[in-house]
Amino acid sequence: MSRLALLAALLVLLAPWAGSAQEAPSDAAARYQNLSEEQREVLRQRLRDFKALPPEEQARIRSNLQRWKALSPEERARVLRNFRAYEKLGPEEKQELRQAARRFHQLPPEKQAEVRQRFREYVKNNPGRRDQLMENLKRWRSMTHEQRQQLRERLLERRHK
To answer: Residue 108 domain-assigned?
Structure first.
């Protein structure tokens, strides 16, 4: 089981089962008792998988679970929708997203903030405008370095007129 799948499984299975952070252990035990034997075995296997992870990975997952519990129901629904959409992607698309996420996390905080702001602006655009922006991006990516430089120069000339 991949770590991402393990985390998703823990989130989906444990978050509803574990209840709130204030839930008494007896309440959690009662919830466990109400699970079918199959659900209990899945939970036990996931716990064995979790315990087999390195301590730093366990800490990261625990931290993510705490963040999950702190989310509002609307935010949880959004996260699950995004995760399900991610799971439907092909391997190449997933790899591209993982690489983009790595590049994003390597950016300095102020650059990350700038990227987030630009993304919020992109999302606010109507679908037609977003489609046009994606077309422009595809054209940009297909250009050579020289073509990009020429385009930059033309745009700068327009701005100064």
So the answer is: yes
C-alpha to C-alpha distance for 82 and 11, rounded to whole angstroms: 14
Q: Per-residue confidence at 47, pLDDT binned at 50, 70, 90? A: confident
For residue 13, pLDDT over 60 is answered with no
**Reduced 3-state DSSP string for the chain:** CCHHHHHHHHHHHHHHHHCCCCCCHHHHHHHHHCCCHHHHHHHHHHHHHHHHCCHHHHHHHHHHHHHHHHCCHHHHHHHHHHHHHHHHCCHHHHHHHHHHHHHHHHCCHHHHHHHHHHHHHHHHCCHHHHHHHHHHHHHHHHCCHHHHHHHHHHHHHHHCC
Average pLDDT of the chain is: 82
Longest dimension (CA), the chain: 74
Is 159 a domain residue?
no
Q: What is the pTM of this model?
A: 0.51
Does pLDDT of 64 surpass 50? Answer: yes
Find the domain containing 102 and state its range: 3-126
